[in-house]
Amino acid sequence: MSMDETNEIRIVGDFHSDITVIVVIPTFNEAENIRSIVDQLFALNITGLGILFVDDASPDGTGEIADGLANEHPGRLVVANRSGKLGLGTAYVAGFKIALDSDAPYIVQMDCDFSHPPTELPPMVAALDNADVVVGTRYSHGGAVDPNWKMSRVLLSKWANCGIRAILGLKIHDATGGFKAYRRQALEQIGLDRLTITGFGFQAEVALRTQRCDLTVKEHPYTFMERTAGKSKMSVQIALEAFWRLTMLRIKAK
Ligand SMILES: Nc1nc2c(ncn2[C@@H]2O[C@H](COP(=O)(O)OP(=O)(O)OP(=O)(O)O)[C@@H](O)[C@H]2O)c(=O)[nH]1
Ligand SMILES: [Mg+2]
Question: Which residues have C-beta atoms less than 6 Å from ligand 1?
Fold first, then answer.
């Protein structure tokens, strides 16, 4: 599957030239979370912080709320509205390309559901002083998952992560997480047009490309929290498809 998108993207807003950190957040049905994530991110008072939402025509009206937020925060908040649900991987690629079109030296990716605590952003961005990529980790360096998770959920998550690390031979401890910060040159080296996985396996494919490009990676521990509002898009089918695609990726690369 090609990541080249021919479909239309309607962009609302543009980044002011003093924006130095762009946080890319894909959204699908996040109407309950989107306003509070913006409030919490801007409350961090990170100099030059910009937010870019990539919304896939969410039926719950997330895109319209996001457009309103772009008007409330001119120069600092941009929305890329896509015409339908095209998957997390393509949403990130589209968002990273828009971020790279600006002059911002730092680009961050995170979810809209508060699984990735906004308060971890300042130390992650600061860590880019000594790294090309900073990877949020739940599975090493003191990172953790929601203490309210059932043991079965904890084990499933850890085994999936271990399996994917083994299939791809990844050194980083959290292969499936989506909380990361990049220097812009790192994303350029990774090569967005080379990425092939459009769904859940996208994070692991980026991790593999990062390793192959010999980029300096720093792992930053955080505690992954379960979403309290909105619905998860994860399913067993999505996870199994990711395993299959990543296995094929490894086989083809040999
Ligand atoms: N644009 C876009 N965003 C998506 C799509 N699928 C999921 N998202 C967003 O990507 C982020 C992660 O999705 P979640 O549903 O939380 O899935 P997850 O974090 O992998 O799974 P959980 O552990 O259940 O939370 C959220 O901000 C979603 O709104 C998609 O197809 N397109
Ligand atoms: Mg989530």
Answer: 26-28, 30, 54-56, 85, 87-88, 91, 111-113, 115, 227, 232-234
For 61, the enclosing helix (H) or strand (E) is: none
Higher pLDDT, 249 or 18: 18
Q: Has residue 219 got a pLDDT over 50?
A: yes
Which of these, 242, 246, 208, 219, lies nearest to 138 by C-alpha position? 219
Residue entry with tokens 């309103």: 68
Which whole-number Å values give the CA distances from 218 to 115, 198, 202, 210, in the listed order? 20, 25, 19, 12
Task: Give ion ligand 2 contacts, CB < 5 A.
Answer: 111, 113, 115
Task: Give the chain's mean pLDDT.
Answer: 93
Atom of ligand 1 nearest to the CA of 200: 20
Average pLDDT for 175-194: 97
What backbone torsions phi and psi does residue 110 show, to the nearest 5 degrees? -155, 165
The letter for the amino acid at 234 is M
Domain ranges of the chain: 9-253
Residues 9-253: name the CATH superfamily.
Spore Coat Polysaccharide Biosynthesis Protein SpsA; Chain A (3.90.550.10)
Q: What is the pLDDT of residue 233?
A: 65
Which H, E and C letters describe 97-115, residue by residue?
Answer: HHHHHCCCCEEEECCCCCC
Pocket of ligand 1, candidates 11, 176, 233, 237: which has the most ligand atoms within 8 Å of its Cβ, to mutate?
A: 233
